[in-house]
Design brief:
It contains 16 helices and 2 strands. By secondary structure, it is mostly helical. It has a single domain, classed as Farnesyl Diphosphate Synthase (Orthogonal Bundle), CATH 1.10.600.10. The protein has a two-stranded antiparallel ribbon with strand order 1-2. The radius of gyration is 22 Å and the shape is globular.
Length: 345
C-alpha cells in the first residue's frame, strides 16, 4: 500500500555538544595559595636556559611564554631558596618540553629519548650525548645533587624511569587507537603525569632528608597518590578541549564516557566528583599522620605541606597559563564554561 498522505516525524541526529561546564574545584580546595618571592628571577633565568642556542623559535617560543611555568613552580615550591627554585623551574619547564615531544612520538621515539635522559641521570659526569635533551638533563641534575639527599635522588630517578615506561605505553595505545579501561588508565596516568619526580623535588627544595621507611609508609604513599590524582585528573578536565580537538584519547573523560556509557557533560561531572574525593582523601590522610618523633615529624609536615601547595597551586595556575584556555583562562575560571574547539582535520 502507498504511504502517501501519512506524515512521518523527522528524526534528526543528536548534535555534538558545543560547550562543557567545569566542576568547581577551586572552591572545594581550601588550602592557602602562596607564591615564592623568587618567581620573576627564576622565570627569566629558566627561559634563558631553555632558549639557549635558539632551539625554540616562533610559535613554540611563544607557547613557552604563555605556559607560565615559573608561576606554577613558584606556587608549588613557595619556600625554596632561589637556586633550588631555579632547578625546580628548569625541571618543570623541561618536563613540559618532554610532554610536548612525547605527544608527537611513537614508542621508538620515547624509548630513544628515555635512554638519553636516564643515562644522563644515572651517569651525569660520565655519560655524554650530543642530544640537547641530554645536555639539559645533566645540567639541572648536577645542580640538584649538590644538596639533594640520597633518598630524594633515588626517588627522583626511579620515578622518572616510571614516567618514560608509561609514556612509551601511552604511545603504543595511541598508535593502536586503544581506549584503556578506567582502572588501567588511572594506574598509567599516575606515572605519565610526571608528578612523582616532582614530589621528590619537594624534598630537595625544602632540604629534607626523610628516611626511606617513612616515605614508604602507607599514609605518606596515600597522600602522594591523592595529590597526584587531583593534579592529574583535574588536568585531564582542563586539557580535554585542546586534546579532543586533536583526537587524543589519553584522557580520563573519553575513558569514562566509554566505560560508563556517559555523555560528555556527565563524564566531566563524574571526573570532577573524583577530583573532589581525592582532595577529601588528602585532608583525611593528613589528619591521621602517625608520629616518628619531633625532628622527622617536622620534615614530614613540610613535605605534606608541599603536596598541598601542589594541589592548590596547580588548580589556580591552570587558569593563569595559556596552555588550556588561551587568553580566556580568567573568564573560564569565573564562569566555568568552556566553548569546545572544532576537531582538526
Amino acid at each position: 500500500m502507498s504511504e502517501r498522505g501519512v506524515t512521518h516525524p523527522l528524526t534528526t541526529p543528536p548534535t555534538a555538544p558545543t560547550k562543557i561546564v567545569l566542576p568547581d574545584l577551586v572552591s572545594h580546595c581550601t588550602f592557602t595559595k602562596r607564591v615564592s618571592r623568587h618567581r620573576k628571577q627564576v622565570t627569566t633565568e629558566t627561559k634563558r636556559w631553555l632558549f639557549e642556542g635558539g632551539n625554540l623559535t616562533g610559535k613554540k617560543r611563544d607557547a613557552f611564554h604563555g605556559l607560565k611555568a615559573g608561576l606554577l613552580t613558584a606556587m608549588c615550591y613557595p619556600d625554596a631558596g632561589c637556586s633550588q627554585l631555579r632547578v625546580c623551574n628548569d625541571f618543570l619547564t623541561y618536563l613540559f618540553h618532554l610532554d610536548n615531544l612525547s605527544d608527537d612520538m611513537d614508542n621508538r621515539g620515547t624509548r630513544a629519548t628515555a635512554d638519553v635522559v636516564l643515562n644522563s641521570l644515572y651517569h651525569p659526569n660520565a655519560y655524554r650525548s650530543p642530544a640537547r635533551v641530554g645536555k639539559m638533563t645533566r645540567d639541572y641534575y648536577k645542580r640538584m645533587i649538590t644538596t639533594a639527599s640520597p633518598g630524594a635522588q633515588q626517588r627522583f630517578i626511579e620515578t622518572f624511569d616510571f614516567f618514560f615506561q608509561s609514556v612509551t605505553q601511552q604511545a603504543i595505545d595511541r598508535a593502536a587507537g586503544v581506549i584503556p579501561d578506567l582502572e588501567s588508565y588511572i594506574a598509567l596516568r599516575r606515572d605519565t603525569s610526571g608528578c612523582k619526580p616532582c614530589w621528590a623535588l619537594i624534598e630537595y627544595a625544602n632540604n629534607l632528608d626523610i628516611p626511606d621507611e617513612v616515605m614508604e609508609h602507607p599514609i605518606i604513599q596515600s597522600l602522594g597518590e591523592a595529590a597526584n590524582d587531583l593534579v592529574t585528573w583535574s588536568n585531564d578536565i582542563f586539557s580535554y578541549n585542546v586534546e579532543q580537538s586533536k583526537g587524543d584519547t589519553h584522557n580520563m573523560i573519553p575513558v569514562v564516557m566509554h566505560e560508563e556509557g556517559l555523555d560528555l557533560q556527565a563524564a566531566v561531572d563524574f571526573v570532577g566528583t573524583m577530583c573532589k574525593q581525592s582532595i577529601d582523601r588528602f585532608v583525611d590522610d593528613r589528619a591521621n599522620l602517625p608520629s616518628w618523633g619531633p625532628e622527622i615529624d617536622r620534615d614530614v609536615a613540610t613535605y605534606v605541606d608541599g603536596l598541598a601547595d601542589w594541589i592548590v597551586g596547580s588548580l589556580h595556575w591552570s587558569f593563569e597559563s595559556e596552555r588550556y584556555f588561551g587568553k580566556a583562562g580568567r573568564d573560564v575560571k569565573a564562569t566555568r564554561v568552556v566553548d569546545l574547539l572544532p576537531r582538526r582535520v
